[in-house]
Input
Amino acid sequence: MKSSIRRLPVRAGKSLSKRRSNCLALRPSGRRGSRQDLTLIGPGRLGQALGRLLTDAGCPVRYVVARRLEKARRAARFIGAGATALGLAARELTDAQVVLLTASDAALAPLARHLAVLRRDWSGKVVLHTCGALPSAVLRPLERRGAAIGSMHPFQTIPDPRTGVRNLPGCYWGIEGDARARRVATRLVRALGGIPFRVVGSRKALYHAAAFLTCPTIVTLMDRSARLLRLAGVPGRIARPMLGRFVRETVGNFERLGPRRALTGPAVRGDWQTIAHHRRALQRFAPDFVPVYQELVRAMMRLARRRQLPHSERAR
Output
């Protein structure tokens, strides 16, 4: 079935021909040759977006693999260019030179063990996973079979495949693993117009915690702020776009000025009376949020290098 989803244009920047040159087969040994094909296993939101973008960049996805064959077929239609859908038991899924595991963190270890049983000799192949919190060491069963192992994680939010197709090009990717795997990961990232950077594998949990504190935490705080605005009588049609604009400006200030100069508000000024007003209102209308508010104020004060809260506030 031909996909009815419109192909999205590649972002401005590096030309498509130059992006495609990054997908000329860099075999694990380092030799150039014909284009290197890929197997993609676990085609969720990131996997589908990544597969489609790599295909458009000249890195053909040969097989799309999922536990349920119908899911693999749907993903293959989204990725396009003749990708073949397979189930996890199909031995030919190991034929490609590069295997991308875009499955969940919890699925990686059992998936690596399964693949190591499916093919005994992985010499000359590269296996990369895209999870943020786990190092490439989770793929050790494949390394013992001869594969080069690594990881490449986008520092980006992917709420659905279509959005991923729009926002993955040009984003930052954390890369780690052995040298051969890093070389291949770097070429794939550059084929997307992305920016690769090294991460210490043993500290990937810290790297991922940083992403967690930025993206879902901001969404959660914005949701709580929207609730407070509604309680204060602000219409929902105003609250959401207003908060969006407010946060975009704040992010711009962070990028331009750095954290300390971008930080504003009563905690920075030492306006404890306003903070006390906030806390009393929260205790009345949103008491479950008071501990979070208190901890955020303390973190703001540390960033602003102010003294601790007055004793009257600390005791509460």
